Amino acid sequence: MESRSLVNFSGHQYLRQRLVLSILTGKHVRIDKIRSEDKDPGLRDYEVSLLRLLEKVTNGSVIEISVTGTAVLLKPGVVSGGPVTHDCPLSRSIGYFLEPLVMIAPFSKKPFQLTLRGITTDDNDLSVDLIRTVTLPHLQLFGISDGLELRIKRRGAPPEGGGEVQFLCPIVKEVKTVNFVDPGKIKRIRGIAHSVRVNPQFSNRMIDASRSVLNRFIPDIYLYSDVYKGDESGKSPGYALSLLAESTTSAIHCSEAASSPGEAPEDIALLATRALLSEIRHGGCVDRKHQSLVLLMMVLGSEDIGQCRMGEPSVRTVQFLRDIKIFFGTVFNITPVDSSNTELLYSCLGTGYVNVNRSLA
Amino acid sequence: MEDEGDRLLDLLQAHGQQFLNSFDLNQHPRKKQKLEESQKELENEDFEEWGGFSNAAVSTHPSEENDDDTPDEYDDGFTASSSTKIPDVVVFSDSRQKPSEQFSKAQKKAFMATKVTSIMEVDRAPHRDEDDTQNDEDISNAQNDALLHRLVHTKLLSGSLNPALDLTHAQRDKALSGRVLEIAGKAKLGKGEVDIRAAERNKASKRVREGLLRKKDEREKQQLEEAKNLGNYHPTLKKLFDTSSRSSGRQRRVRGLGMGVGKFSGGTLKLSKEEINSVTG
């Protein structure tokens, strides 16, 4: 008899967030009908790799995958952390694997020393630059700061990859309650333009094109041209631009664009810049890509009302809120800030989650 | 949403009016009046569909209000006169500002750091305190060295006055004269006595002089050997054991008639700022 509850889901979407919630709550989760009607049914290689990675990072978790791969059962163990190395497949970038780990890393037994190899910058997921400069600072809001590092040892562009990053995360006992209701005004814009195995002028061209749009808004813009040479530049050529805008209350909005064959760097830069401007227009204290992370941390906070002001939830966020209700039983109170704005105020009662795994030695 | 629609309609209306006004319309003054009238009305009302140029349904009734855009019976109102419409000029300034100097090296390093805490502390204004203190330290070290050198040779080892040295009167005399020379600046620090003794040596006859020099060389060679044997010698200390005395290229002899101020060459008298100031006071 199952003393723990079993949660059932179907479909391959939102797989990562469901696995993360399962690990954090300890509830078994069963996901079936994964691409059952597809030409290639079942789990993809990167999803299997993610499950392997979660197995490495936790202790005592049991993962059962059906014969056809269309169903998976996860009985989560304890997040142990420590030094872990994983080679990510070349079908998804490292960001795909790092995002769920950022959510569980603060609650592990030992501090994470995770080395991931694979593609560092991609169109589909957050690049490592944005994770370092945007995602990890969001953790600082919740009191996780000392010893939080992301070292980019090598860069790797698709399709061949060859990148390597090292993620170090401290462990915390519990997460602070956040009360982030003032988005402030954008005071500066920073960016990282990098190019590997192509003409180094490409970064400069991207920076010029981006500046041509952004200069008329605020004076404090600095776009950094990141140079990696030789071995550290990976196996394939590529270039990308990541932008972030910081406000007076340290709310961060970000955007990025990566190269694809045949596109000019100026086009990439304009794409990223316009995406940043539309992200800023969306408003709020947290941008759309990081809504899930912030909402999760609010739920895990101490037993107090936490508040955060954000724009409208993306589709992923909406599903995440539903899943939180299933796993934690917490419901968010979402009210509009005022009638003229599209921004919403999200508030919830934290569950008082305490990291019981941490080794007290 | 309706406000939005109305606003857009007004914009369209205004644009249309502007377009029409760009044409110089030859008109009967009465029609012109009506034109103005109807224009005003049209500005106030919602935009009505314009029936086209061929709509010659021109009524001369001044009271008729729901008129279309005034069609002219005789011509379509289009004349080749110069358009009174001024083209809209939109300036997109591509002003390139130079990268903000506030983004100092320290901030750059902090932004690209691997530690997340330093990324968020970029706010600190670039302080140059470290550079300044470094400079101050360097300066004070050099100053201290010079001071020490001066003290050692002037106060700390007063060769003539120390009773423990058991100097004879002659030796004391020479030491004192040497110190006086040093103070006067005629001799280098520490070499005052050497100069005095060299001067005395020069007073002697040739044989005595040469004998003394030979003895001096021998003595110094022996000292060098002893130092090497004892392990006190290092190639960097060569100058200490150097026997040959060379005058450090006596400071250049002043040439020409030093007529007080400035330097005269090539037909011109060249004056420096200090010289001018010294004259003008």
From TrEMBL, chain A:
Could you tell me which residue ranges the RNA 3'-terminal phosphate cyclase domain spans? 8-334
Per the UniProt record, one Pfam family is RTC_insert
Alphabetically, the GO molecular function entries are: RNA endonuclease activity; transferase activity
Keywords for the protein's UniProt record, in alphabetical order: Nucleus, Ribosome biogenesis, Transferase
List the GO terms this entry assigns under cellular component, sorted alphabetically. Answer: nucleolus
PROSITE patterns with a match to the protein in the record: RTC (PS01287)
Q: Give the signal peptide as a residue range, or say none if absent.
A: none
- What are the RNA 3'-terminal phosphate cyclase insert domain coordinates in residue numbering? 181-281
Q: Any idea where this protein resides?
A: Nucleus, Nucleolus
Instruction: Give the UniProt family note.
Output: Belongs to the RNA 3'-terminal cyclase family. Type 2 subfamily.
The entry's protein name is RNA 3'-terminal phosphate cyclase/enolpyruvate transferase
TrEMBL record, chain B:
GO biological process entries = maturation of SSU-rRNA from tricistronic rRNA transcript (SSU-rRNA, 5.8S rRNA, LSU-rRNA)
For this UniProt entry, what's an example GO CC term? Answer: nucleolus
Q: Which organism is it from?
A: Suillus discolor
- The coiled-coil regions, if any, are none
- For this entry, the protein name equals Protein FAF1
Which PANTHER family does UniProt cross-reference here?
PROTEIN FAF1
- Looking at the record, which segments are called Disordered? 22-82, 225-266
Domain of life (superkingdom):
Eukaryota
Residue ranges under compositional bias (Acidic residues)?
65-76
